[in-house]
Amino acid sequence: MPSLLLVMFILQTVLHIINTVGASTINELLWILYNKLPTPTSSSAQRAQTLKREIIRLKRELATTSPQDNFSTWAKLDRQHNKATAEYQKLDASLRTHQQTFTSTISTLRWLGTQGARFILQMWFAKTPMFWIPAGWVPYYAEWILSFPRAPLGSVSINVWGIACASMLGLVSEAVAASYVLATKQPVPVGGKGEPMAFSASAEKSEKAGVEREKEL
Amino acid sequence: MEPTLQSIIDQKSLRWIFVGGKGGVGKTTTSCSLAIQLAKHRKKVLLISTDPAHNLSDAFNQKFGKDARLVDGFDNLFAMEIDPNGSIQDLLAQGGESAEESMAALGGMGNMMQDLAFSIPGVDEAMSFAEVLKQVKSTSYEVIIFDTAPTGHTLRFLQFPTVMEKALAKISQLSRQFGPMLNGFLGAGGQLPNGQNIDELIQKMEALQSTISEVNVQFKNPDMTTFVCVCISEFLSLYETERMIQELNSYEIDTHSIVVNQLLFPKKDNPCEQCNARRKMQKKYLDQIGDLYEDFNVVKMPLLTDEVRGKDRLEMFSEMLVKPYQPPE
């Protein structure tokens, strides 16, 4: 059993990631991964993908073939297209129902693994101190809050530790996102009022020359 | 595949033959000719026109009605014309006075119901279908040829058994569930306004459904039913034919013959510019047909110099369905 502190921290990290990325995105990602594995739906998913590509190819070919000049070629393409479309629709419908069951199962599992686990841990270890604060560091009311709801006075409770982890993660991720933006995006130069604008001398010269030339004309 | 309809004539198990295509391509001429050829090899043949614009009478120069009538000059070929619109009026008239009384009792409702009945899509086809079934059940024809209405109409007519089956299954299920309750409302007799009993009505519907599903099975059996596509060698006609064949495939109705009508065969030294140009165009689409419908019997029929009307001309024309036309050099 790893340290309870670490477990709670990891749990909060996972929750944070799910909240930032979005549950539906994760569901779709998992669905794609699930179909990559040798699962019962993987073959039909692959078939649907190839059919989709086939349909697009046939559509393009149909558009370039003139039915008036090459009726038999066109009609053969049209038949293939209709066949592929019908098969694709059938596959797609069955895949969709599979995906729905998959999504609901995954959602339940995810909830149990994160929110559910957090609740259980918080209930189970409500009376366990995470760590002790040296006596006299904080006043009594702060100690009382830190040990809320049921941990012994003078210690930090699991709930408070969880909240602390969550807020830290929030701050850190914001900092990371901000620094990433700073590092990658070029700041847009905005000239303030009254600030001298710099032009290269050569540009000015050529402009002047242009004006003069115009005058000459 | 051989360029004749001999295979249809040889296939003795065939019971239903549909002839269809775009308007004005010679469906009626083709169906009459096919009927004449079949009459030579079958005991009793019935030719039915479900086209609202009836042409059978024109083709045979003889008036036909909604009862099967012997065609002049034949002893085993019968023909009838079904008027899709007339059937409803007939049905209402059949109710006789009692129906009219009940309509009067309902006040304005009666007329409203009538309008409603007319406006249901596919009801005219339904009526003609019922008419056909009635005729076919009572007499034993060896083969029945349908001269159908232009494309869209035909397909709805063919699709009808499937649609009707679904609807009737729903209705009879509903009435079985709510029937007892309705009967409770209406009293012990369970009388409806026009003097019918609910149970009787349901029984009638179920009988109709069983007939329809029986015919539906027959339509989907390639040994019993086939569809002859008629077209001319032009783009739109070809396009419609292709669409029709695809749709027939989706209904699982067999089709393996195409009749190409109105082909021009001008002589080599023909000075007629239009004829030669047209021949060139027809040749182009004929090649496409040959390419696309390799496994079909493609029958090439020439454009004649006179109208194909009357028994003798039709007989002459029908010969070309079984013996390929040899164009003059």
From TrEMBL, chain A:
Domain of life: Eukaryota
UniProt-recorded Gene Ontology molecular function terms: protein-membrane adaptor activity
Gene Ontology biological-process annotations: tail-anchored membrane protein insertion into ER membrane
InterPro entries hit by this protein: Get1, Get1_fungi, Helix_hairpin_bin_sf
Keyword Transmembrane assigned: yes
Lumenal compartment residues: 1-4
Membrane topology listed for this record: Multi-pass membrane protein
Keywords from the UniProt entry: Coiled coil, Endoplasmic reticulum, Membrane, Signal, Transmembrane, Transmembrane helix, Transport
Name of the protein described by the UniProt record: Protein get1
Species for this entry: Bimuria novae-zelandiae CBS 107.79
Organism lineage: Eukaryota, Fungi, Dikarya, Ascomycota, Pezizomycotina
UniProtKB/TrEMBL annotation, chain B:
GO molecular function terms listed in the Swiss-Prot or TrEMBL record: ATP binding; ATP hydrolysis activity; metal ion binding
Signal sequence coordinates: none
GO biological process: tail-anchored membrane protein insertion into ER membrane
Residues noted as binding ATP in the record, renumbered to the chain: K22, G23, G24, V25, G26, K27, T28, T29, E234, N261
SUPFAM superfamilies, per database record: P-loop containing nucleoside triphosphate hydrolases
Primary location: cytoplasm
Domain of life the protein comes from: Eukaryota
Cell location: Cytoplasm; Endoplasmic reticulum
Boundaries of every ArsA/GET3 Anion-transporting ATPase-like domain copy: 15-322
Record-listed Zn(2+) binding positions: C272, C275
Keywords: ATP-binding, Cytoplasm, Endoplasmic reticulum, Hydrolase, Metal-binding, Nucleotide-binding, Transport, Zinc
Enzyme active site: D51
Known partners and oligomeric status: Homodimer.
HAMAP family in UniProt: Asna1_Get3 (MF_03112)
Family per record: Belongs to the arsA ATPase family.
Stated name of the protein: ATPase get3
Organism classification: Eukaryota, Fungi, Dikarya, Ascomycota, Pezizomycotina
